[in-house]
Each structure stands twice: as structure tokens, then as C-alpha cells.
Specification:
This protein has about 400 residues and is α/β, with parallel strands linked by helices. It contains 13 helices and ten strands.
């Protein structure tokens, strides 16, 4: 790497990657791409004169670093890096990328595509700074216990390599699984997500944790409730919220159920439309009241039995809305209730949710289950709980701990 060249700004790389996506690699020589050429020089791929081949090589290396999974495959088609696609029209490349991630073109072209471009930009900057690439996530193969152990060890290694801060950079979201978890007499696919909840795509029902007043957090806060509220809101060209979908929906629900200005019992679930999250393929947001505000403080007390009731209510509401709306509601994503300001240990949170999930999925295995985490330690705690759920049936299960 040439230490005399400073890597470009993240925003500049994202903007120029968008230009490359729109114009195609065949026009690379004619494009003004100062940030990408700067990144190529910082990485030692070119000297002083702009070299389109060096930029293409840098882009290929960045996309390769995403791994041979859905994300990497989508990026290859989006930029025309797959053999025979360099001359494809931008629309055709986008359509293929959207198909790979299981979204319509309209849903993909907004936030999911931007997140993917951001993820590629991060890899471009990592290469330009000379940082080593992360090891790819372990493939989902072998016995179920082996899959979970391998994934847990990989997550622990990532956590030990850095701090345990929240994963909230643009595009910083990973999916582990799906794991075919047994719910007698069948199995149900369970996927563990790590990263910002607003980066989730293609999940029918997104569950949010709320207080018993069903008052979502301010959209500029960092909690799960705040992030979902902000992501669902519709904004004008300046970024100002013009339709606060979650607040308006919950207010209407509280009035309809005679609870406006009053608390609901822990475990109650209200639903709202998904707003802008519909562009991610999300159809409904379920708001589970599990946190009881503590008087004269900013703290909450989590109702553990309320967590159990909320999980069961979410499944019941989903089945009800399947019938009432004819929507194909099949996938549902739960958070770690109370693991934020509620102060619950992540493992304890899932331990209270899991029995209700097991009961519901045993009775109705038509669902796909998703679990959302934010910090590496939370991801590891969820994987451990999944392993513990196998232990009674598999005496050979050994759970790694660091």
C-alpha cells in the first residue's frame, strides 16, 4: 500500500459506486471517479495516472470479500462482474440482483440497494487502508449442532477481535442460518440476524419492543423502538418526517381499543402498517408491550411473563391477519425483549421467549422464524440458547464459551 495517499471519504466512494452501477463497467474509462482512483492509489493498485483496470480490480476484490453468499452474488450482478453480464443494461442487472435477494425490483432499488453499495464501499476502504479481510461466515452444513457450534465460534472470534459495540454502520448486517430447528414432528427454519434492524429485508412481520403505554421512542434515539419508528416514517426531500406511520398507527389502535392515554397490560400486541419499511419487503410491524415505565425515572421494568404472552399473541395475530387480509404472512422476526434499557441478559431474554416460540411452532410449523440481535455478544447468546434447546435430545452437544 502507498502510505503517501490518504483513502477517500466513505460518502464519495458510495456516490461513485452508484455511478458505476448506473453506467456500467464498459464505460469505466469515460467516467470521472476521483475517489475510486484515490482508493486504488492508496491500495497500491495504480501510481499517478488514472487506471480503469485498477479500479475494476479493486471493485472485484471488494465484492469478492463479501463472500459467495446471497449478498456477494447480488453485488456481482449489480455491477456486471459475472462473466457475460458486463454489457447488460443497468435495469437487467438490478432485476437479477433483486431476484437473488428475494425482493421485487421496486423494493430492492431503494434501501436494500443502498445498503449493498455501502457494504461494498466499506470493503473498498478496508482494502485501501491495507486492513485484512474478515473470514467468511461458516457454511451451513453438517449436523445441526455442528452448524450452530461453528457459527458460534466464528461470532466469538469476531467479538474477541474487536469491541462489543453495536453493529450500526451502513450495510453492517449479517444473517446466520437458516438452521433447521426441530419442533416435533417437523423442523422450522430459524435465522439469526446481527446488525441494525432497519437493514432487515424480506421478512413479513417485524416485532418491536414497546412500553405499556405503547409510546414509541423518539426517532432520533438508538433503541429498537426508535429505529423502527424512524425507518417506517415517510419523509420529504429535506428528510423531514411528514408521515409518522408508527405513532399514527398506534394512536389509532389505542383509540379503537379504548386505551388512549392509559397503559395496556404487559404482553398486549398492537399492529401498524410498515410504512417505508414496505420497500424492504416488510408487511406488518407488531408492537409488543413488555416494558413497564418506572415512576420518576427513565428506566423500565421488564415483565418476564409478559414476554411469553407477547410472543404467543404475535403468532395468534399473524394467523388471524392471514385470514382477514389474505396476505401470505409466513416469516416473523423477534427482538431480544428487554435486552436494551430493560437490562435483561440477552440469554435470559431468549430463554423467556423460546418456550412460547416452541409451543407455537410445534402447533403451527408453517412459519419461518427470525431472531434479531445488535451486538456480537447478543448474537453469541442467541446461538448458545439454540444449542441449549438441542441438549436434551443430543447428549453430545458442547457449548463453546469464551
Amino acid at each position: 500500500m502507498s502510505h503517501a495517499v490518504v483513502p477517500p471519504a466513505f460518502e464519495d466512494v458510495v456516490r461513485e459506486l452508484r455511478t458505476v452501477r448506473e453506467k456500467g463497467l464498459v464505460r469505466l474509462r469515460a467516467l470521472e471517479l476521483p475517489a475510486l482512483h484515490q482508493a486504488a492509489r492508496a491500495a497500491g493498485r495504480q501510481v499517478d495516472e488514472p487506471d480503469p483496470q485498477a479500479v475494476e480490480a479493486l471493485l472485484r476484490e471488494a465484492v469478492d470479500a463479501l463472500g459467495g453468499d446471497t449478498l456477494g452474488d447480488a453485488a456481482e450482478y449489480l455491477f456486471g462482474l459475472v462473466r457475460g453480464t458486463v454489457g447488460w443494461r443497468p435495469r437487467d442487472r438490478r432485476e437479477r440482483a433483486a431476484k437473488i435477494v428475494g425482493l421485487s425490483v421496486e423494493s430492492f432499488r431503494k434501501e436494500p440497494e443502498s445498503l449493498l453499495l455501502s457494504r461494498v464501499a466499506e470493503e473498498v476502504l478496508r482494502i485501501s487502508k491495507g486492513a485484512p479481510a474478515e473470514s467468511p461466515a461458516p457454511p451451513v452444513e453438517g449436523t445441526l449442532a455442528g452448524q450452530l457450534v461453528d457459527t458460534l465460534q466464528w461470532v466469538l472470534a469476531r467479538r474477541d477481535a474487536g469491541d462489543d459495540g453495536p453493529l450500526d454502520r451502513p450495510g453492517e448486517i449479517a444473517a446466520y442460518g437458516p438452521f433447521s430447528m426441530p419442533f416435533a414432528p417437523v423442523t422450522v427454519p430459524v435465522t439469526v440476524h446481527a446488525g441494525p434492524v432497519e437493514g432487515l429485508t424480506g421478512i413479513d412481520i417485524l416485532v418491536s419492543s414497546e412500553n405499556t403505554m405503547l409510546e414509541p421512542a423518539k426517532p432520533f434515539k438508538s433503541s429498537l423502538s426508535a429505529r423502527i419508528r424512524a425507518a417506517a416514517a415517510r419523509r420529504d426531500e429535506s428528510g423531514m418526517i411528514i408521515d409518522d406511520v408508527v405513532v399514527d398507527g398506534l394512536t389509532a389502535w389505542m383509540r379503537a381499543h379504548g386505551r388512549f392515554g392509559l397503559p395496556v397490560e404487559p404482553g398486549r400486541v398492537a399492529w401498524t402498517e410498515a410504512g417505508e419499511l414496505a420497500r424492504h419487503g416488510i408487511r406488518r410491524i407488531y408492537h409488543a408491550a413488555v416494558a413497564c415505565p418506572v415512576s420518576n425515572s427513565n428506566d423500565y421494568q421488564v415483565d418476564l411473563e409478559g414476554i411469553f404472552r407477547a410472543v404467543r399473541t404475535c403468532f395468534a395475530l399473524g394467523r388471524q391477519q392471514r385470514v382477514e387480509t389474505s396476505l401470505p404472512l409466513r416469516s416473523i422476526c423477534f427482538p431480544l425483549f428487554g435486552a436494551g434499557r430493560g437490562g435483561l441478559d440477552p440469554g435470559q431474554s431468549l430463554a423467556w421467549s423460546w418456550p412460547a416460540m416452541r409451543q407455537e411452532l410445534t402447533a403451527d410449523p408453517s412459519w419461518e422464524l427470525h431472531l434479531s440481535t445488535w451486538r456480537p455478544s447478543e448474537t453469541a447468546a442467541v446461538l448458545r440458547e439454540l444449542l441449549r434447546s438441542l441438549a436434551p435430545a443430543d447428549k453430545n452437544v458442547t457449548i463453546p464459551h469464551h
